[in-house]
C-alpha cells in the first residue's frame, strides 16, 4: 500500500493527455483525487468533456469545473479572435500562449488545496516536447511552490505545499508510454486547440503536432480522430 493512501491531492485536470497521465500517476501513488478543471471559455472547449470523463474513470472524489472567462482579457489565440497557427512548432512563444495561465490556474488549485486540507498539488506541465510556454518551466514550478508557502495560512503556520510535476522532464513519447502503462485510453483525452465544426482534431496546431509526433516516436497509433 502506498504511503500516500488516504492523503488528498488536488490535480489540475485540463482534459489533455498530459493532465490525464498526471492524474493517473497521483492515483497510482495512492492519493485521493480532487480534480480541478478551469472553464476559461477556451476555443477548444471540447477538452472539458474529456476532463469529466477522465475524472470519473479515475474515481476522483470531487471534480470541480470552475468558470473563469479569460475572453474578457483576450491576448491569446485560445481566448480571442486570433487564428491558431498551423505551420508547425517554432522557437518563439506562440500566440496560443494564454497570459500567466498556469500561474492563475495553480493559484486556484492552491486555494482549493488549502480549503480541503490537502498539501499536494499535481500539474501536467512538460518542459521538453512543448510549445515553449514560460509557465511550463521547472523554474516556474519551483518558484510557485515557494510562493505557496508565503501566500497561505498553512505556510504562515510553518507548513508546506508540494507541487508535483511528474512529467516535467519526459518527452511526449515517454508520456504516451506512461499512458499505456497506467492502463489509460488516450482517446479519452483531448489535445487540439482548434477542433473542426464536426468535432475532429485539426491535426495541424502545435498541440496536435506534438501529440502526433509523440505517438509516432512511441511506435503507437493515436486513437483520436483527426480531420
UniProtKB/TrEMBL annotation:
Family matches, as Pfam families: QueC
Cofactor binding note of this UniProt entry: Binds 1 zinc ion per subunit.
Residues reported in the UniProt entry to bind Zn(2+): 192, 202, 205, 208
Enzyme class: ligase
UniProt catalytic activity: 7-carboxy-7-carbaguanine + NH4(+) + 2 ATP = 7-cyano-7-carbaguanine + 2 AMP + 2 diphosphate + 2 H(+)
HAMAP family noted in UniProt: QueC
PANTHER family named among the record's database cross-references: 7-CYANO-7-DEAZAGUANINE SYNTHASE
UniProt function note: Catalyzes the ATP-dependent conversion of 7-carboxy-7-deazaguanine (CDG) to 7-cyano-7-deazaguanine (preQ(0)).
Family: Belongs to the QueC family.
Protein name per its UniProtKB record: 7-cyano-7-deazaguanine synthase
Biological source species: Croceicoccus ponticola
Gene responsible for this protein: queC
Amino acid at each position: 500500500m502506498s504511503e500516500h493512501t488516504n492523503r488528498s491531492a488536488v490535480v489540475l485536470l485540463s482534459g489533455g493527455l498530459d493532465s490525464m497521465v498526471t492524474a493517473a500517476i497521483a492515483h497510482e501513488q495512492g492519493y485521493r483525487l480532487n480534480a480541478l478543471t478551469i472553464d476559461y471559455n477556451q476555443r477548444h472547449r471540447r477538452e472539458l468533456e474529456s476532463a469529466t470523463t477522465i475524472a470519473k474513470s479515475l474515481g476522483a472524489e470531487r471534480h470541480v469545473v470552475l468558470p473563469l472567462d479569460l475572453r474578457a482579457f483576450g491576448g491569446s489565440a485560445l481566448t480571442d479572435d486570433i487564428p491558431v497557427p498551423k505551420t508547425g512548432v517554432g522557437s518563439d512563444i506562440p500566440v496560443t500562449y494564454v497570459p500567466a495561465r498556469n500561474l492563475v490556474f495553480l493559484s486556484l488549485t492552491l486555494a482549493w488545496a488549502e480549503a480541503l486540507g490537502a498539501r499536494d498539488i499535481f500539474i501536467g506541465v512538460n518542459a521538453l516536447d512543448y510549445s515553449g510556454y514560460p509557465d511550463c518551466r521547472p523554474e516556474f514550478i519551483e518558484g510557485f511552490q515557494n510562493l505557496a508557502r508565503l501566500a497561505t495560512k498553512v505556510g504562515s503556520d510553518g507548513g508546506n505545499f508540494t507541487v508535483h510535476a511528474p512529467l516535467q522532464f519526459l518527452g511526449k513519447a515517454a508520456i504516451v508510454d506512461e499512458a499505456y502503462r497506467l492502463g489509460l485510453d488516450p482517446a479519452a483525452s483531448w489535445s487540439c486547440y482548434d477542433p473542426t465544426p464536426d468535432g475532429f482534431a485539426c491535426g495541424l496546431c502545435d498541440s496536435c503536432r506534438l501529440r502526433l509526433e509523440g505517438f509516432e516516436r512511441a511506435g503507437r497509433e493515436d486513437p483520436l480522430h483527426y480531420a
